[in-house]
Amino acid sequence: MTAKLKITSIGNSAGVILPKEVLEKLRVEKGDTLFLTETPNGFEISPHDDEVERQMEIAEKVMRENRNLLRKLAQ
Questions:
Q1: DSSP string of the chain?
Q2: What is the pLDDT of residue 51?
Q3: Which of 19, 37, 40, 52 has minimal CB crowding within 10 Å?
Q4: Is there a contact between 32 and 23 (Cβ–Cβ < 8 Å)?
Q5: Is residue 4 packed enough to be buried (19+ CB in 10 Å), middle (13-18) or exposed (0-12)?
Q6: Domain named SpoVT-AbrB: which ranges (predicted)?
Q7: Burial state string for 45-66 with b = 16 or more CB within 10 A and e = fewer than 16
Q8: Does residue 8 surpass a pLDDT of 90?
Q9: Are 49 and 37 in contact (CB under 8 A)?
Q10: Tens digit of pLDDT for each residue in 19-70?
Q11: Rounded distance, CA 54 to CA 72, Å?
């Protein structure tokens, strides 16, 4: 399946409009989270990515535990 996506303004950001058919194939709806992953063949959009979720959990833990250190490094 190939879908033509249009980038549009959403406030001060940009967003992509996903056609109803794409939402159905991904089995997602408004409010769900999608992951954009770079692969050797381009980009992949998926509703769930275990590796990204694992990495985000680790990053959030490190940021919580080292908040003061990260603030000093940012100066």
A1: -----EEEEETTEEEEEPPHHHHHHHT--TT---EEEEETTEEEEES--HHHHHHHHHHHHHHHHTHHHHHHHH-
A2: 80
A3: 40
A4: no
A5: exposed
A6: 8-53
A7: eeeebeeeeeeeeeeeeeeeee
A8: yes
A9: yes
A10: 999 999 999 999 888 988 889 999 988 887 778 778 888 989 999 999 888 8
A11: 26
Bridging pattern class, strands 42-46 and 35-39? antiparallel
Report d(CA 51, CA 75) in Å as an integer.
Answer: 31
Strands 13-17 vs 35-39: parallel, antiparallel or unpaired: unpaired
> What pTM value is reported for the model?
0.56
